[in-house]
Design a protein that fits this description.
Mean pLDDT: 94
InterPro entries: BtrH_N (IPR026935), DUF4872 (IPR032369)
Organism: Streptosporangium carneum
Low-confidence stretches: none
Protein name: Lantibiotic ABC transporter
Number of strands: 11
Order of helices and strands: EHHEEHEHEEEEHEHHHHHEHHE
Strand content: 5-15%
């Protein structure tokens, strides 16, 4: 038996926005990937290290699934989330909506998926599932992972059952749009200011602009932090640029979101934020290059330079978010209808 839904699978870069795009287009709501990311207040920063970690991790977005919850709340979407410890019930939770003609979002560990060439555990990976047969599940993943892909049912079961950092208990979800959803344009101000406020006022020093400043100090020690710098430093840089971030640790996506917003709303604060994030995106890519060079050459001067750039980035992003946090105070004028 084969059940496959007709879906719109597009070239996209980030896993959660990829899945959200598939589910929402099926509901008749077609938004760009940067707009999905921005309306979900997806941008953040974390410097993550710990005794059980082989090497520090730089993250550039909010926690897995927070973006989905944020977006659903802003657009008044009905978000139905199901979790269970039972593999049998987990499968029933997925096939029921698919058999009814609705694609389903899944959170799982990408390590177990057949089509993933890079075997690294990541329990916060999100895909859209749109069909299945007796042997395989049909999924939509990022363009980097192949777009419309398939994986064996056994591998999917392992990926959904995995336990560890950022995993969920066989999480599946569907989205239903209301008959008269709020205009995405009307949600820009709340999405931008919420993201800015969280970034500017982090609860701990590892997050937001404070986290970037901390990274600028600690990245200088990374050659001493690892026994295999030729492996760990280029891998860290690769994750910043290629691991579903859209490049520049999600800053390219947020830059493009702000550019789209600036075409919709006449706001000097939006234009300031866009200009600063365009600058920041280029600098994040420069940091990744310097970290790679440090790992390959063993030259600590590359890390010292990366640290200097990160300290500049902390200031630039702080200034950008300060401008964006004032967006709600100026009542910006719409420049055109949102189509």
């Amino acid at each position: 038996m084969t059940t496959v839904i007709d879906i719109d699978a597009r070239s996209t870069q980030h896993c959660e926005t990829t899945a959200l795009g598939v589910l929402l287009r099926h509901q008749g709501l077609d938004l760009s990937e940067p707009m999905l990311f921005g309306l979900g207040s997806g941008l953040s920063f974390i410097y993550w290290d710990g005794k059980n970690m082989d090497f520090p991790f730089l993250g550039g977005r909010v926690k897995p699934f927070d973006l989905t919850r944020n977006l659903a709340a802003r657009l008044k979407l009905e978000l139905l989330v199901q979790e269970t410890t039972s593999p049998h019930r987990a499968w029933e939770n997925v096939v029921a909506p698919i058999d009814a003609g609705h694609p389903v979002g899944l959170q799982l560990d990408s390590y177990h998926l057949d089509y993933f060439g890079s075997k690294v555990h990541f329990g916060g990976h999100v895909v859209a599932m749109y069909g299945y047969d007796d042997h395989d599940a049909y999924l939509v993943d990022t363009d980097q992972q192949g777009g419309a892909v398939s994986t064996s049912l056994a591998s999917l079961a392992r990926a959904r059952a995995a336990r560890g950092p950022m995993t969920a208990r066989h999480r599946s979800f569907t989205l239903t749009a209301p008959r008269n959803p709020p205009s995405p344009e009307g949600q820009i101000i709340s999405a931008v200011t919420a993201c800015a406020d969280a970034f500017l006022n982090p609860p701990i020093a590892n997050l937001g602009h404070r986290g970037i400043e901390k990274a600028g100090k600690l990245v200088r020690t990374w050659l001493q932090r690892t026994g295999d710098p030729r492996r760990d430093l280029p891998q860290a840089a690769l994750l910043m640029e290629k691991a579903g971030t859209g490049g520049a640790l999600f800053r390219n996506l947020y830059r493009d979101f702000l550019a789209e917003c600036a075409r919709l709303l006449d706001s000097s604060h939006l234009r300031t934020g866009y200009g600063l994030y365009a600058e920041a995106a280029a600098l994040w890519t420069e940091v990744a290059v310097l970290i790679t060079e440090a790992g390959e050459s063993g030259d600590a001067r590359c890390l010292a330079q990366a640290g200097t750039v990160l300290c500049d980035l902390s200031r630039i992003e702080r200034e950008a978010m300060q401008a964006l946090s004032r967006l709600g105070s100026e009542a910006p004028k719409a420049t055109r209808e949102y189509l």
